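FAQ: What does a ligand-bound record look like?

Like this one, built around zinc ion:
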Amino acid sequence: MATKRTTTRRPAKAPAPVPCPDCTTGQVSETFQVGGRKKRIATDHQEALCLTCFGTGHAPTS
Ligand SMILES: [Zn+2]
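The answer part, i.e. the structure of the complex:
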C-alpha cells in the first residue's frame, strides 16, 4: 500500500498586473509642433496611444 501524499495543490494565482511605467491609462499626451516656418510647441497636447503597453495600461510581460 503506497503512502498517500498529502501535498495540497495551490490554485494557480494570476500575477498581479504591473502598471505601465509610461502611462496610467494606456494613453500618453504629447506635444506637437505647429506653425510653418517658425516652429513652436503648441500649448495643447494630443492624446496618443502608449507604445509601451499598446493601450492596455499594463507593463508588457515577457
Ligand atoms: Zn503604457
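Follow-up question: can I read anything off the structure? Yes, for example: The chain has a mean pLDDT of 82.
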